[in-house]
Design goal:
This is Transposase. This protein is mainly α. The radius of gyration is 26 Å and the shape is extended.
Length: 307
């Protein structure tokens, strides 16, 4: 559900990075704003997201009505793989972002450009020449767009090249972006493994929206009762989650209720069937590797040999 609040994650990230810079450099610093995406790109992305969410809801609705997966795929004009993926997920599966998003030919030179900018060099042509000597092979337009962001951050007029001692410095955020995945990892981390900055980030995140505060409290309490083997708290947690008005958590709570005995045993006892499941997966992998190539006897030897 945290992917529904990207602005909240961004706000926390900005607050933390600004605090780090002011503490380390004893100045009030300004972060470099990221380049805004093209309006057409934003509109297209929002339209595609709405379409995928609608398809996800239709798939689950038809599945509850008894439609087969093939029939659902034919009805909605989507692939069977997509139908399987939607049905496998209790909440809408957001697409993963590209690992190289935000990177360009200029990225390796950002640190140098910031240093030169804070020293007072605001001439795009001169900065281009300097980084070309270091190996930059991109265009002037990319450098000009970057210096425009820096100028806008400091509210400088075009042509101003001198920097006052009292002028606010510019910096790129030192910490990694607070993505949905990193936020979830931070929230689920054991209390003993959280630093003061981790707790600060979680506290700030809770303040961004009432639903985020509720979700974080419920997620952390569930993780703690599982870690501490406290089945007596499971019923109370279920009642809170089932009435929290957050769809993702309500669906999760209903899933627990449907398999209550197994979940309660999992919380109660120290052992699990994880080792068995791992061996089953290993056997399936070996069978796929040897399909149509060898006998059952060889498969048995390969499977039992490590044991």
């Amino acid at each position: 559900m945290f992917d529904e609040y990207p602005l909240a994650l961004k706000n926390v990230e900005t607050i933390i990075n600004a605090k780090i810079m002011s503490e380390e450099d004893k100045i009030i610093a300004q972060p470099v704003p990221p380049p805004p995406p093209a309006k057409a790109t934003v509109v297209r992305a929002e339209s595609n997201l709405s379409k995928r969410v609608e398809q996800y809801e239709q798939v689950h609705a038809l599945n509850q009505q008894g439609w087969t997966k093939i029939a659902i795929a034919n009805k909605l004009g989507i692939s069977r793989r997509k139908v399987f993926r939607f049905l496998k997920s209790a909440t809408f599966p957001e697409r993963k972002g590209r690992s190289d998003r935000g990177k360009s030919l200029l990225s390796p030179y950002n640190k140098y450009l910031l240093e030169r900018w804070n020293e007072g060099c605001h001439n795009g042509t001169k900065l281009l020449q300097e980084i070309q000597e270091q190996g930059y092979q991109g265009s002037y337009a990319t450098v000009a767009a970057h210096t425009r962001r820096l100028r806008d951050t400091q509210q400088l007029q075009k042509g101003e090249s001198k920097i006052n001692q009292s002028e606010l410095k510019v910096f790129e955020p030192k910490k990694s972006l607070l993505t949905v995945r990193r936020a979830v990892k931070l929230i689920l981390r054991k209390p003993s493994q959280k630093s003061d900055s981790d707790n600060q980030a979680i506290s700030l995140l809770k303040q961004q929206h009432p639903n985020l505060n509720t979700a974080i409290e419920l997620v952390q309490s569930f993780a703690n009762l599982v870690r501490n083997h406290e089945p007596e708290k499971l019923q109370e947690w279920y009642e809170k989650a089932n009435s929290c008005q957050i769809k993702a958590l309500e669906n999760f709570a209903r899933g627990i209720k449907e398999d209550w005995a197994a979940v309660k045993n999992g919380v109660t006892y120290l052992w699990s069937n994880g080792q068995v499941e791992g061996q089953v997966n290993r056997l399936k992998m070996l069978k796929r590797q040897m399909y149509g190539r060898a006998s059952h006897e060889l498969l048995k030897k390969r499977f039992l040999c490590p044991v």
